[in-house]
Q: What sequence folds into this?
């Protein structure tokens, strides 16, 4: 069974640009969550999508957005990039059913903002 | 919102010794407490989890204990091996029909010295 696939794995952008990251969940999983990982703030929840609807949202500014497609693939977008957006962005998939808490993480997309 | 504190931030143990990592959480509504292991260059992977209706759970060399009254839970690794070297994260969430979002602790970097 293929795991969670994130693309691209590495990318470099400059301040003010925007970026789109992609996540393909495990087959059959309907929930996709996004997390930001930085050395200073650790792992922070961005948002969760389930059946193309945002179901939960973390405390990030509106520059961070996402969407989910009918095949459960998800994208997240960060607009007007700031230096502080440099981080590892992790996608995690799950079945999305209640009482099933396990998240399966991808290897992440490492974003560097110059 | 939920806040999870994790200690220690780094832990060095001799191979064969035990390692203990402790976490406290703030939201008494949290009912699901997973532990994730993150190896270099990879996404976090679930190693064990516990739900609030259970006080202790074991899986071979790892065990987790939960004290709901005190709102703290701990990870115990016995007979540590070099492959246990990684960063460990505790997390807390409320798993309900409307999805779940994990609040992670700051992580513990474990080094097992041969």
A:
């Amino acid at each position: 069974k293929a795991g969670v696939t994130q693309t691209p794995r590495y990318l470099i952008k400059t301040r003010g640009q925007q970026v789109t990251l992609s996540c393909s969940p495990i087959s059959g999983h309907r929930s996709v969550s996004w997390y930001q990982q930085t050395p200073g703030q650790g792992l922070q929840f961005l948002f969760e999508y389930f059946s193309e609807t945002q179901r939960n949202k973390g405390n990030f500014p509106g520059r961070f957005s996402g969407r989910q497609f009918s095949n459960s693939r998800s994208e997240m977008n960060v607009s007007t990039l700031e230096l502080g957006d440099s981080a590892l962005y992790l996608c995690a998939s799950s079945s999305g059913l209640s009482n099933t808490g396990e998240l399966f993480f991808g290897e992440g997309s490492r974003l560097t903002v110059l | 919102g939920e806040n999870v504190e994790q200690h220690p931030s780094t832990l060095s143990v001799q191979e064969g010794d035990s390692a203990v990592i402790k976490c406290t959480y703030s939201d008494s509504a949290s009912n699901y407490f997973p532990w994730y292991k993150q190896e270099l260059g990879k996404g976090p992977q679930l190693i064990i989890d516990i739900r609030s209706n259970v006080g202790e759970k074991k899986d071979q060399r790892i065990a987790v204990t939960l004290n709901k009254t005190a709102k703290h839970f701990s990870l115990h690794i016995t007979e540590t091996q070099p492959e246990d070297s990684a960063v460990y994260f505790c997390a807390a969430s409320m798993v309900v029909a409307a999805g779940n979002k994990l609040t992670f602790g700051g992580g513990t970097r474990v080094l097992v010295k041969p």
